[in-house]
């Protein structure tokens, strides 16, 4: 009887596997910053999240999000042109940013932290993403992170002055997901 119990426990322990998801219409990736003490918001129209997540299998979970920098939009043509230029995103030189997380912590309830790395403008640095996970037929992942734009060389030259443009940028995402075959 004991060998059967041991095999059943081993199968149960290895049976939990994170599901793979892709984003559905209505998913968003945005950012908020201030310029001369006036807040503005922006978003990326083109981003591709590859999500593998299960709250019961954090070790098997993974986020891999690719962001097309040229898709940034703040609803201000002059600001958008500047953001895409060499002093900010350098979308022509380094067209994509990437966020990869392979370590996760549970905060309790449906709250988690993804301990990921953001690669932007040739710089890779750790960026934790705090998020909620709402399970269901179409799970929803809603998260926020704060990044130092200067750590990623976003805003060079005169734009390093944090009196006009603070260093902290808040990033937010809301992903409506659907499971996909592995």
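^ structure tokens above, recovered residues below v
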């Amino acid at each position: 009887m004991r060998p059967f119990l041991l095999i059943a426990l081993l199968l149960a322990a290895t049976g939990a596997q994170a599901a793979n998801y892709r984003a559905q219409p209505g998913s968003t990736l945005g950012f908020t910053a201030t310029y001369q003490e006036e807040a503005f918001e922006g978003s990326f129209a083109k981003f591709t999240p590859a999500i593998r997540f299960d709250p019961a299998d954090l070790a098997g979970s993974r986020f891999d999000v690719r962001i097309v920098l040229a898709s940034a939009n703040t609803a201000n043509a002059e600001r958008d042109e500047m953001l895409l230029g060499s002093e900010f995103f350098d979308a022509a030189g380094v067209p994509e940013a990437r966020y990869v997380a392979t370590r996760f912590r549970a905060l309790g309830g449906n709250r988690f932290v993804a301990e990921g790395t953001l690669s932007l403008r040739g710089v890779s640095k750790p960026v934790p993403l705090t998020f909620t996970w709402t399970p269901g037929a179409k799970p929803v992942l809603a998260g926020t992170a704060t990044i130092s734009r200067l750590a990623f060389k976003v805003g060079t030259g005169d734009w390093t002055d944090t009196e006009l443009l603070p260093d902290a940028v808040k990033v937010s995402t809301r992903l409506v997901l659907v499971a996909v075959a592995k």
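Residues 2-15 form the longest helix (14 residues).
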